[in-house]
Amino acid sequence: MGKEILISIGKGKNFMAYAAFPEQTPAPAVIVAQEIFGVNQGLRDKCDWLAEEGFIAVCPDLFWRIEPGIQLTDQSKAEWARAFELFNLFDVNKGIEDLIATAAFMNEHPQSNGKTGCIGYCLGGKLAYLMATRSQIDVSVGYYGVGLEMLLNESTNITKPLMLHIPEEDQFVPKEAQAKIKETLQDHPQVTIHSYPGLDHAFTRLGGAHYDEAGAKLADQRTIDFLKNHTGL
């Protein structure tokens, strides 16, 4: 269903993105912000799922400045080690620049209806939050975003709808951090927070150690409804 495309950022520079298109266009676009494993099969499958729901889904290669074409899995210690190495090398500010460039590209795409959203997982969950604070994207959804508690000072910049999925047993987001996030954002008029008792980080990653089918279905349906409600689909 999908194909690789190039996103240009000027001065002869571009980066790869995986794009999946729905049967009917024009349609809203949804940018999928990657985990620490790159644009792997799991993220491509997420794009295909979104396309089946009627969206143009685009997952840009945000590690291209470090090493283009990274496609790791969560199935070996070596891949985990490489993933965390990439995470530590990653420049979040440059990543946001690339996501904004992707959004601008999709807003002008001939098959787009001019509405663009962003969803992200893990590292991408943080980026989805930052897209809500640093861009004019129409809607954002973050799954188990890491480090949000250190970025809450930016929440006053949120002017478009943002949904956060927070698993309560997230090993990478301590309960104190979760409480701080919820306390700061719970009364924000643009923010919707869903908390998932008993679930761990990456509970929607099919095949992952903490995948939970019921939790994933619930979170994903909430996401689809939220995206459709705010993109005119």
Largest sheet features: 8 strands, mixed
Give the proportion of residues in helices. 25-40%
Shape: globular
Radius of gyration: 16 Å
N/C terminus separation: 20 Å
Note poorly predicted spans. none
Query: How would you write the strand order of the largest sheet?
Result: 1-2-4-3-5-6-7-8
Instruction: Write down the domain tally.
Output: 1
| Number of DSSP helical runs | 6
Number of strands: 8
- Per CATH, the class reads Alpha Beta
Mean pLDDT: 95
Order of helices and strands: EEEHEHHEHEEHEH
How large is the share of residues in beta strands?
Answer: 15-25%
Question: CATH-wise, what's the superfamily?
Answer: Alpha/Beta hydrolase fold, catalytic domain
CATH topology: Rossmann fold
CATH architecture: 3-Layer(aba) Sandwich
Counting helices, strands and paired strands, the structural category is alpha/beta
Give the gist of this structure.
The chain has 233 residues and is α/β, with parallel strands linked by helices. It has six helices and eight strands, in the order βββαβααβαββαβα. The chain has an eight-stranded mixed beta sheet with strand order 1-2-4-3-5-6-7-8, with helices on both faces.
Walk me through what this model shows:
The protein has 233 residues and is of the alpha/beta class. The chain has one domain (2-231): Alpha/Beta hydrolase fold, catalytic domain (Rossmann fold), CATH 3.40.50.1820. 36% of the residues lie in helices and 24% in strands. It is built from 6 helices and 8 strands; from the N terminus they run E-E-E-H-E-H-H-E-H-E-E-H-E-H. Strand 5 (112-121), helix 4 (123-134) and strand 6 (139-143) form a beta-alpha-beta unit. Helix 3 (92-107) packs across helix 4. The longest helix is centred in the last third of the chain and has 19 residues, at 213-231. The relative contact order is 0.14. The model has no long low-confidence stretch (mean pLDDT 95).
